Amino acid sequence: MLRNTVADSKRKSYATELYARASRVWNDFWFQESSTKTVSLVRIFAGFIIIGMGVDSFLSLPIWLSSTGLLDVSLTRDLIGVKKEWDSIFQPSLLYFLSTKLSIQLYLGLMIGAAGLMVLGIGSRWTVAFVYLLFLGICHRMPFLIGPAEYLMCAVLLYLVIDPGKMLRPSRFGLSDNTNRFSAHLALRLLQVHLWLWMFFACLSQLAAVIWWEGEAAWFLAAQHKAFLPTALLAKNAVLVNLITHGLILSQATALVCLSKKLTRPIGLAAAMIAWVGIGVVSGDIYYAAVGIVASLSYLDLYLEPVVQ
Amino acid sequence: MHGKYRKLISAGIGIHLLLVGLAMAANLAPSQVQTAVLAVCSPYLKTLNLELGLVPVELTHNFAELEGPFRFQVQFQGDSADRWKDVARIFNGASDRMRLQRLGREIAALQIEERDNEVAELFSQLVRGIRQTDSGKEIARIRLQREMIFNRTDFNSPEYETLKEDDKMIKMFQAKVITIDNETSLVQELEDRRASKSVLPKDADSKKQ
What we know:
The structure holds two protein chains of two kinds.
Chain A: H1 2-30, E1 34-35, H2 37-58, H3 61-65, H4 73-79, H5 101-120, H6 124-141, H7 148-162, E2 180-181, H8 182-207, H9 210-214, H10 217-223, H11 231-236, H12 238-259, H13 265-283, H14 286-296
Antiparallel strand pairs in A: 1-2
Chain B: H1 3-25, H2 32-47, H3 64-67, E1 70-76, E2 85-86, H4 87-90, H5 94-112, H6 116-132, E3 139-147, H7 152-156, H8 158-162, E4 169-180, E5 183-188, H9 202-208
Antiparallel strand pairs in B: 1-2, 1-3, 3-4, 4-5
Helix pairs in contact in B: 1-2
């Protein structure tokens, strides 16, 4: 009887201790104040990428989306499996209602302009939310023609809405203005965890294929004309192909491990940068690499105060 | 921060990241359970564009049927029968080339699912889109080919050098373009979905004709 009571009380104290410690770790992780400098940096570069994407699509997107273009509304709905008007409520886009070349270009112009304001930090989170909505509109209008870059950019913008940092000032790009905010910390943490999950699952998916283990993935991407690598050079050089392929996996794995701890974070950040540049080179998707690098900047807590574990 | 808000925010963070993790885990080969849970959560994930679908975050599996590279080509009126122009050269933007590859992937997936009407409709609209680029000529034929990917050993072999451009292609779709009163229709040519290099001996081909 007495033994049972002691065991019960031990179990209870273990559960209480576990709950208390888990709560403390959770609160330390999510609920602190951080400097707005890092989110500002992420916002500025994300804005530049949106401008780049918008300018790149300015002339060509109407050819795809206008009423006389490649993907009229009814065909798009057929392709994405939307049978009823009501279904599309979850993939809303103003572009479904814009059918002329001019109106689509105005839409893109608006997005580019708003992204410019976002870079400057004018309008704070409202501008970021507006850019996010316009960018989401493009993604929802042609979901099967967008790639990983757009998906990752949507996540970056979503978290920047929580806290986009401070307005850009002439002195030191406004990054000297040190303000600590709870929302800045939350936005950074969400972006960090999201990026970590992304890299983790991307790395796992790569390792599900034999060619990544065989070290031949870089060759196949080059042979598919995706990589910014000379096919002729890779064809003759097995060691180089293997090194690039294994190096890409190794840099991603190193980033995943090292980004998790404060002490090893600089190594993790360097590995993540190498991984994203490598991904850009072998996949040929510059935007994907650029968004990955910008999202990785969320780990750049040089300015973060207090020090985050 | 007040404890009540902290609990609410914590619940929000937990649910959000759980769904994000689920969407990512279901990217490559979702299980039935993942598919069912995603279907329930798709209003949230789709609205925020967090549901990845089959976006190739793995970059390559060397699954050539879906990875390509795909080559959309057109033949203009008056051009000789063996002269084709890559649509990628007609479009200008860097994103367009990537979009064309993704469109090729979509068409390959539609062909696997035998959704032939949608494939034909896509090509009709592609013809309309190309006309907008002011190429100046009327399109006579359109086709989609998938380039064969050789492993390095085969690529370096002397036999590879002897292969013609057409021998490295698999024809996925080919059609004549007929325009009457601004209405475009496509008449599919018989050779589609078959390797352009005939698998039959030459005399068998001539007997068939």
